[in-house]
């Protein structure tokens, strides 16, 4: 069975659960597309002086025909009460151009007696006739050609005009002989989300867009336009989606989320419940991770998720659910290996985490640490509640929702992924009593495999890396986060003559604030490079010093630190992590020299000046920022639509029952309207006034556009074919509005 909803009815069911009766699927009713016809009714005088009528039917073209079994070879048949005529078949197109004309005699002279033509003596009988156009897909199957749709047009409208040209929607074939009870097939519960936005050019949205984009700078943030939108919407999610896309498009997502997260942390009393609710902050971070982190998920999880889906290793560890022939210990070992591998790829993936996510996590960490200074773990749980609980664990559980698999996994694979997701989520939570997190005893037993300190240390190191930021905040209360350390060999940074004496073994140490080296671990640093001074980190070609595994750290004024790692793996790790922490630096280079400057020239390009710009493009390090295809104007239009939908609530807030009711400028420090918190009545009132004005202006522009469009639009045009019920409804509404205005 099927559920079919007319386009014009979609708005009725928007964003709410509805039960729909299932209908029987009938090939004759599954139609789509439109056809362009020209009809001409002519009077013809015969040689004997008798008048007869002829109908010329011109089939010009079709658009949007359905593709049947991967192909569409359409043709049309035209019928008028007699044998049908057929166009040529157009191969491999669902937008065929026919441009063929068929002639029919509608009335004949009385002496005409050719039996192959129909006999209509009375011209008035024309009013009762109809021309039928059927579209078919020429099929090689034994079942015959597939019906694509039909059109039935009464000829009476041609009595007023001898020529008529228009576009028509194809209609299903009328099978009136079927009588089926509507409840034969049962019902289906659906939640349909339907939006339709008519987007103006950018200048129309400037006032509202500017008001939204400055939300991060409004004090307090609860008085900002973006925060107000989140409060008035029935679901936080419907506000978060366009807000995140708009702020990402204009590069303002980090300050906005930092502001609303900081406000939420201040209102949180218990560190164990931090960011656990479905607040605007949580929904905005979720949406940001989905958009900016999709590539990150692909490179991190997809290879092993694909393997799990293809190999089908038994991993059931519930003794009650074991299948015949399965061994519990073998299943536990299969599952343990999968969890170990996924845990490792996640905790080693910090250098690939997108910059925008890292900057948000840095802000969350700072706010949480400042608010709960006595809780040393809150700086980790504030970040893990998103990256593990809301990002990796859901992606493992439902990979199809995160574009990791094309379809929902089969039941066995789905069960395996559920068990992995539960374990990864618990590992990432850094909970003190982890066995208590499981309702099932078999999960608690399985988790004993991972009750080792090395797992907690790996999680903390990963969280440290993704929540560190090269943008040093001098107000930060955080101590520098150690990211990596170890012995390497460095070459002096001066321009001294080359010699082995210039290479020395040193202990290198990288934090989110600086890159240093010293003689031994624990000694005072001999050299310190602030993270903001790292302009590029690139490999160094072996020919420079005839040494392998070398890389260079380029600083201002062309100072270069040449370093040799112990092996190629270590070299890559250092390059990746140094690139990661420095990739936000404003003065990062776009070109570099892949070889050293020796004996008065660059070995790579032979340039003699040591300040010659680089000759090779920088590798750019990691795909940390993925370009998103976002239309800022459409997102602003979506936000306008939401404000317009909830206008009664906005007006009520602005009116007597909220800000305006308690002497707006003298109100108490904190008031509450329903679930809406007003920290500053004066600022909130100002913002509400600007929102209502901006929305009102856009509403007027939309109304004027519709009026102008109504005057210009022709029913039967390509944009609005005959049979477009939504347009018919629109015409009726506009006519009623015009009549009311008069």
UniProtKB/TrEMBL annotation:
Keywords: Acetylation, GTPase activation, Metal-binding, Phosphoprotein, Repeat, Zinc, Zinc-finger. GO terms for biological process: intracellular signal transduction; negative regulation of Ras protein signal transduction. Residues 481-583 form the PH domain. Residues 235-429 form the Ras-GAP domain. Residues 31-168 form the C2 domain. The keyword Transferase does not apply. GO terms for molecular function: GTPase activator activity; zinc ion binding. PANTHER family: RAS GTPASE-ACTIVATING PROTEIN 3 (PTHR10194:SF53), RAS GTPASE-ACTIVATING PROTEINS (PTHR10194). This is RASA3 protein. It comes from Pluvianellus socialis.
């Amino acid at each position: 069975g099927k559920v079919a909803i007319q386009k014009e009815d979609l708005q009725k069911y928007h964003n709410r659960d509805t039960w729909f009766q299932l209908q029987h699927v009938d090939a004759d009713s599954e139609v789509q597309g439109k056809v362009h016809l020209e009809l001409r009714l002519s009077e013809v005088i015969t040689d004997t002086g008798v008048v007869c009528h002829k109908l010329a039917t011109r089939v010009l073209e079709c658009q949007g025909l359905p593709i049947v079994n991967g192909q569409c070879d359409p043709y049309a048949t035209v019928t008028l009460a007699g044998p049908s005529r057929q166009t040529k078949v157009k191969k491999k197109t669902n937008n065929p151009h026919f441009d063929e004309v068929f002639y029919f005699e509608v009335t004949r002279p009385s002496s005409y007696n050719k039996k192959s033509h129909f006999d209509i003596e009375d011209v008035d009988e024309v009013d009762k006739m109809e021309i039928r156009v059927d579209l078919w897909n020429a099929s090689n199957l034994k079942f015959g050609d597939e019906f694509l749709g039909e059109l039935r047009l009464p000829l009476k409208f041609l009595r007023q005009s001898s020529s008529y040209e228009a576009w028509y929607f194809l209609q299903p074939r009328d099978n009136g002989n079927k009588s089926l009870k509507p409840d034969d097939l049962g019902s289906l519960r659906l939640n349909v989300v339907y939006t339709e936005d008519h987007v103006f050019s950018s200048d129309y949205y400037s006032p509202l867009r500017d008001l939204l984009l400055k939300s991060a700078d409004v004090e307090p943030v609860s008085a900002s336009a973006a925060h107000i939108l989140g409060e008035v919407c029935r679901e936080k999610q419907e506000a978060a989606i366009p807000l995140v896309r708009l702020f990402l498009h204009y590069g303002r997502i980090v300050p906005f989320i930092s502001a609303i997260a900081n406000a939420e942390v201040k209102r949180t009393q218990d560190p164990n419940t931090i960011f656990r609710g479905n607040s605007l902050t949580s929904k905005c971070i979720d949406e940001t991770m989905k958009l900016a982190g999709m590539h990150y998920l692909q490179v991190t999880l997809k290879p092993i998720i694909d393997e799990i889906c293809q190999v089908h290793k038994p991993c059931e560890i519930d003794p009650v659910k074991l299948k015949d022939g399965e061994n519990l210990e073998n299943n536990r070992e299969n599952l343990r290996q999968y969890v170990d591998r996924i845990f490792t790829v996640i905790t080693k993936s910090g250098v690939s985490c997108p910059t925008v996510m890292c900057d948000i996590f840095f802000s969350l960490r700072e706010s949480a640490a400042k608010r709960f200074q006595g809780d040393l773990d809150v700086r980790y749980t504030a970040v893990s509640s998103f990256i593990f609980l809301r990002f990796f664990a859901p992606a493992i559980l439902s990979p199809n929702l995160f574009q990791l698999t094309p379809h929902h996994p089969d039941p066995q694979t789905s069960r395996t992924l559920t068990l992995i997701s539960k374990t990864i989520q618990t590992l990432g939570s850094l909970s003190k009593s982890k066995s208590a997190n499981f309702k099932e005893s078999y999960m608690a037993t399985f988790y004993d495999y991972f009750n080792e300190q090395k797992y907690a240390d790996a999680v903390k190191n990963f969280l440290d890396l993704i929540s560190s930021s090269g943008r040093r905040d001098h107000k930060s209360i955080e101590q520098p986060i150690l990211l990596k350390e170890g012995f390497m060999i460095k070459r002096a940074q001066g321009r001294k003559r080359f010699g082995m004496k210039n290479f020395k073994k040193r202990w290198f140490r990288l934090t989110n604030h600086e890159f240093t080296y010293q003689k031994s671990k624990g000694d005072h640093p001999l050299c310190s490079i602030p993270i903001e001074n790292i302009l590029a980190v690139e490999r160094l070609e072996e020919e420079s010093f005839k040494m392998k595994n070398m890389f260079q750290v380029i600083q201002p004024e062309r100072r270069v630190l040449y370093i040799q790692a112990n092996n190629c793996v270590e070299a890559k790790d250092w390059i990746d992590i140094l690139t990661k922490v420095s990739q936000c630096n404003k003065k990062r280079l776009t070109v570099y020299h892949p070889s050293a400057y020796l004996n008065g020239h660059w070995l790579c390009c032979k340039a003699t000046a040591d300040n010659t710009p680089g000759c090779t493009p920088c590798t750019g390090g990691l795909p940390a920022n993925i370009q998103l295809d976002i239309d800022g104007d459409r997102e602003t239009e979506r936000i306008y639509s939401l404000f317009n939908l909830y206008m009664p609530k906005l007006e009520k807030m602005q009116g007597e029952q909220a800000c305006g009711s308690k002497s707006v400028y003298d109100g108490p420090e904190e008031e509450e309207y329903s679930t809406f918190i007003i920290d500053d009545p004066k600022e909130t009132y100002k913002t509400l006034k600007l929102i209502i004005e901006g929305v009102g202006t856009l509403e007027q522009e939309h109304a004027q556009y519709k009026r102008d469009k109504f005057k210009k639009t022709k029913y039967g045009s390509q944009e609005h074919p005959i049979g477009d019920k939504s347009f018919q409804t629109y015409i009726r509404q506009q006519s009623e509005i015009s009549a009311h205005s008069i």
